[in-house]
Amino acid sequence: MKTLLKLSLAATAVITAFGAQAQEFPSKDKTVTLVVPYAAGGPTDRVARDLAEALRKPLGGVSVVVDNAAGAGSTIGTAKAARATPDGYTLLLNNIAMSTMPTMYRKLAFNVVNDFEYLGIINDVPMTLIAKPSMAANNYKELSTWINQNKGKINLGNAGLGSASHLCGLMFQSALQIDMTPVPYKGTAPAITDLIGGQIDLLCDQTTNTTSQIEGKKVKAYAVTTTKRLTTPALKDLPTLAESGLKDFNVTIWHGVYAPKGTPADVLKKLNEAIKAALKDPEFIKKQEGLGAVVATDKRIEPAEHKKFVQSEIDKWGAVIKAAGSYAD
């Protein structure tokens, strides 16, 4: 009887301690780590650093640091976050790769749907279709004609397997029902350098990477990939691919925040509230607009809707990737 009583008291103490720990989240004695599965300096890293700064205040002044764990198409950093202690102090910020990895990679050390707690979508980054400066076509209609006249001879650059430009390129070819020769690079910078030099013909990439090139007239721009035209001065006159004839064409690179599976519900609630507060921070909004990104304000900032959205994106991109046979080991 005494043994049972001791066990009962011990269990109660553990539960009470755990509950107190969760209620105390976040502790000023700890640091929140935001894992970014990409190299420092890239567009996703920049979004993460802006978010980390905006999260400090709603998290009571707790320090939020970015941990760049790049490699293998973001699978290394994503796996690291999945294995982290589920206490709210390790989070993951990843982009559209969360919806493409399940199909693109035959073996993953994690399950995108089941191994994470979803905390909300952060932003959407539009994309632009651009071409080498020597391209004769001056608008999308002329470019469409050029593409049809040069089937089998078109080089379409991308920043590597699974990158935003790779995915947009797959969707573009699927919409046109025309195959182009993919030219993968180790990042966007060398791809744009070769585009400017005329070594490749076309590239579809994020506004964060292309706007300055378009402003400087170093490349030719033909369309944006969103359903509505953009208001950015350098891009406001570009039509959408949808209005140019590719019905329902819509590709944006979104970013979301995740916690390891098993993170306590009350901690998740506090994190989601902090994220929603950060998304309303004027300085964060200003910085995101400077990157050409649109801060999320719709229902996807809620965990359940975030997860529902990612599941729909897995279906969408899965079909495109399977049709293209674009797999990684």
From TrEMBL:
Keywords, ordered alphabetically: Signal
Signal peptide (from-to): 1-22
UniProt KW Signal keyword: yes
PANTHER family: BLR1237 PROTEIN, TRICARBOXYLATE-BINDING PROTEIN
Entry similarity comment: Belongs to the UPF0065 (bug) family.
Protein name as catalogued: Tripartite-type tricarboxylate transporter receptor subunit TctC
Organism: Acidovorax temperans
